[in-house]
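Preliminary data (for renewal application), 2-(butylsulfanyl)adenosine complex.
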Amino acid sequence: MVIPGPVRKEAEALRREIEEHNRRYYLLDQPSIPDAEYDRLFRRLQEIETGFPELALPDSPTLRVGAPPLAQFAAVAHRVPMLSLNNAFSAGEARAFDERVRKALQVDQVEYAVEPKFDGLAISLTYRDGVFVQGATRGDGGTGEDVTPNLRTVRSIPLRLPEAVGGAALEVRGEVLMFRRDFDALNGRQRASGEKEFMNPRNAAAGGLRQLDSRITSRRLLRFFAYAVAEPDLSAKTHSEMLDRLKGMGFPVAGERETVSGIEGLLGYFAKIGVLRAKLPYAIDGVVYKVNRLDWQQQLGFVSRAPRFAIAHKFPAEEEFTEVIGIDVQVGRTGAITPVARLKPVFVGGVTVTNATLHNEDELRRKDVRAGDTVIVRRAGDVIPEVVSVVMEKRPPQSVSFSMPVQCPVCGSAITKSPDEVVARCSGGLFCAAQRKQALLHFASRRALDIEGLGEKLVDQLVDGNLVRTPADLYALGLAQLSGLDRMAEKSAENILAALDRSRNTTLQRVIYALGIRNVGESTARDLAAHFGSLDRLMEAGLDALERVPDVGPVVAKSIRQFFDEPHNLQVIKGLRDAGLVWGEGEGRREANSRVSRIFVLTGTLPTLTRDEAHAMIEARGGKVSGSVSKKTDYVLAGDDAGVKLDKAKSLGVKVIDEGEFLRLMEGSE
Ligand code: IVH
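Predicted structure:
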């Protein structure tokens, strides 16, 4: 068929325009046209290609929505094998890696390219004369599967490169994965249509990539990040230079990649990414260290199936299998009844876990967790461990589903559930010892009155022994009472009394938060303190006045009013005042004794963090960054070439910290 010149030109222009919009959307995160306009361009190109099939070239963006299903995947032999990485599970193992590298190269210091270890699937992309022609899975490393139509649907994989690099062929390697937000949306759709949910983004991505029908892959919204070139070496001298080249060609590369020096640099990067991890849009399971110089990489070579020049430093696994020994319920501070799975101890997310929350009755029913089940437990960061799902194949034959108790297991009061809530509650109020204990623990917690040493075991003894009923009673405790308790040496008793004494001098925000008013978290407490400036004014405020505070709606206002209408609570507040508690009235905002909500000044160049990153980490924890050093400054974070700010800090006696201390401080305060 003869194709008219103008049509050929229009198709060509549309292809280019659509791919440019894809690039802006998926690579730069800066879309520049409305979705509807994009759809119009896309449909026009589809129309032309239907009329003139010869114009449907292998780099056409219309292939991004998928092609007719395949009968099976063809095998692809990898010209360069796809190897795996050796793992380091501790700082010691990372240190040993650096030592091996230095010894083999006979040098004192090595520069490393460091990057996140994506938790997805390794793939290889082949370009011929600048056009994407074949994509394959890793398979066994020697032979993989041809998943080209599926990979064409991955919007961030360029279908055509701006230049035909590497002569005839270029093979880029990297990872296919799913962003967490796309994963959540996908599972939302699965739930809505009554279909099975995916376990994690990795499984969802793997399932998506191995669809014979690439139209299904297209809907999974997979992403790609490049981390290596199999051939040729793109005439780069270092790994980081090579990634820069790939980036220039339109391949997404990790924004968090860096180059660092020596083992200190490696461990600093590990700590930093550990902190940033939760904020990344995708899952990672560690970081990868690579000797940066490519000639040194070659010199180091490979041992069996892994390179000697690189290693993956893994985070502790966040998901593990274990067994449910039994299920019981916990009573929270506001009486909320939470079903909890008692587990055979399992090491997950860096700690040994023996309990995992099942959230509420609806969740428990949905997951249908039973005693005797084998389950997947997840603990990510500081998040409370939870049961992700049951391994149904391993369910013992006679298992029975759990029924929620109708009476509080602690105080015997009725458990009630209002129709508009998912949570069931013990109706015992502060008559219930469990609620009293939780209220005390909350009062003493770090962001409340920060009473160090007043932990669960001690609170149990204080409540069970009738020594303490309300927070105010804590301040009447004496040395004799405390040191008479189980496993309480005189020294620890003294420490607790000292901590209690310190907590007498606090802030209005902390007191409001510590009272444990339902629906009043730390940030609402901050707003209330700033708005009313004194506890008395807050206590007198009516619903209207309360709702004038930003972010306080009718529900929160009602909880606050109910709290202060309860004579028992007024008694507690009076008790606290009588016990000598003072809080700065009228100032509200300044945090006197928090370890996190402090004022930082940044100066000089830090070894691995940029200023923006440090700034974001501080603010994420409620701290502030100020431009100049004064007596109010809590920390000066100083890097190389720190100037007058450092001198000023020294002259004022302000604490100066380096990046290492800073990261530890941030880690300890998540
Ligand atoms: S480099 C010679 N860099 O980890 C090996 N791999 O255990 C080249 N992975 O199969 C791999 N992120 O799927 C490299 N930044 C990264 C990576 C990465 C994830 C995966 C990759 C590989 C596995 C090795």
